[in-house]
Amino acid sequence: MNSTYSDQQLKEHIQAALDGNITHEKLADWCYRYMTNVYQNDLYHIATDGRRSYPLSEQATEVVNDIDAQWDLYLANSYSLNELQTIDLSTISLPREWLAKWLQSF
Fold first, then answer.
1. Which of 32, 35, 85 is nearest to 55 (CA)?
2. Lesser CB count within 10 Å: N end or C end of the chain?
3. E-state strands within 1-106
């Protein structure tokens, strides 16, 4: 299991995006990689009660899913196909209030 996937690591990535130390694209990419690694590569374990347990808490996993989905929706709803083919995604920022909400939600 990738040791970089923890609730604390997610908080650090969101805070870094809020502070401008990483791009919002990098935050979204981290979330996408988490989802890909966990769900496609079965990086979870089965708890004694038969439920799946993931590297992140349930609340953090919901935040990761939301960030990944909202990034794609934000791009699709804010830019035309032609713009998306030429724009530097590292220059795009999600609304700061979304990041603050995600940071506070777990």
1. 35
2. N
3. 45-46, 52-53
Q: What local confidence, expressed as pLDDT, does residue 28 receive?
A: 98
Within 13 Å and on the Cβ side, how many CA atoms surround 86? 3
Residue 93 CB neighbour total at 10 angstroms: 14
End-to-end C-alpha distance for the chain, whole angstroms: 22
Residues 6+ apart with CB under 8 A from 30: 10, 13
Query: CA angle at residue 11 from 79 to 68, to 5 degrees?
Result: 30
Report pLDDT digits (tens) over 26-79: 999 999 998 888 777 655 545 555 565 567 888 888 999 999 999 999 999 999
**pTM recorded for the entire structure:** 0.83
Task: Calculate the alpha carbon distances from 52 to 6, 31, 63, 86 in Å.
Answer: 16, 19, 18, 40
Q: Are 58 and 11 in contact (CB under 8 A)?
A: no
Between the CA atoms of 46, 28, 18 and 66, what dihedral angle is there, to the nearest 10 degrees? -60
